[in-house]
Amino acid sequence: MATSVPVTGALELDPSILALPIVPLPEGEAVCTISPIINSFVTLQEPIVLYPSPNPQASFRAPSFVFYITHQPTGKSLIYDLGIRFDYETAFSEDYVKVLNGLWKTKIVDDVGKILEKGGVDPAKVHALLFSHEHWDHTGFIAPFTNAELVGGAQTFAAEANLSEQVTALGKTPRIIDFSGEAIQPVGAFERGYDYFGDGSVWLVHTPGHTKDHMSALVRVAPSPDAQYVLVGGDTAHHPCLLCTHAGHTQYQLRATFRNPLAPEGAPEVAMHFDADLARDSIKRTKRMEAEPNVMCVMAHEYGYWKYWRDNDEIMFPGLGLGEWKKRGLKGTRLYDVTEYEE
Fold it and tell me: Residue ranges of the Metallo-beta-lactamase domain (predicted)?
């Protein structure tokens, strides 16, 4: 993912993507800052997340991105996703830990709360935690965020979900975003969005498929008349090339099921997504946003962006983040390139 090559540059865009209807992105003056944080890594095997897999033996180390967002008009801070809880080896069951270490090769950098403190942010003053979905590599450790509103879809906070025990322990009542409610309206390529602050600076959008209530966030980082956005998308796509908008590069699809190499011989394949067709639709809509010259998309496991950002103090928290990304040339290509993989 060479960030020196704009995704909307010389390479021809796929006309089928551009044909998807899109509601004009909302103009406005209210903006946010948004900075990526790395608290953990997982290793993804290519054939688990990509079909067809050009390199079936390949695997790549991927971050679990966390995003620190500050609403400039009010100073309120939000966090989108929390990565992996730092104490997962004692917090989860022994069998679960074996899977996390064996299949996903989990590696912790630090607790998100501690990373924030080192960067001068008090976790107790964070206004809200926005969760893309309920899976273990996104729900992190919420205890330091004692005053934060917990926000997400209904399934994200269901009794059987990862977050349930933590939410109960803190005595929290989550704020459920009902994507079928009266306050929901279309935004960009998405049919269902919620204007979190009411000023168009943060839209929570329904991107179901990987899970039932998966939620992305569209964040305005530059004001009108040339409003620019960053779309953070959790697990909408697990491989960057699934969001590639270029003509002639549409052959790759998500992998709906996979065989767990740790499972006994002959065991049935495991579903990677709640609904693969919905997941494909969410990918298509996210690709349409990626094709917009004023939108930059970043998913949770963007190994390519992490490779180019990891040593850049201006981008990574507590630096400037992704503001003025267009001027700084931060949006990269998503062409498939196995040479970008790192273990």
Answer: 63-273
Interval 210-224: pLDDT, tens: 999 999 999 999 999
The first and second tokens of residue 219, run together, are: 């964040």
The domain limits of the chain are 15-340
Q: Provide the pLDDT confidence category of residue 265 given band limits of 50, 70 and 90.
A: confident
Strands (E), the chain: 32-45, 59-71, 77-80, 107-108, 128-130, 149-152, 175-176, 185-187, 190-195, 202-206, 215-222, 228-232, 257-258, 270-271, 295-298
Q: 226 exposed, middle or buried (CB, 10 Å; 0-12, 13-18, 19+)?
A: exposed
CA dist 145 and 162 (Å) reads: 17
- Which residue reads 């190994």 in tokens? 303
How far, in Å, are 37, 254, 280, 284 from residue 275 at the CA level?
A: 29, 11, 9, 14
65 DSSP β-pair partners: 38
DSSP string, 255-275: -SEE--TTSPTTPPPEESSS-
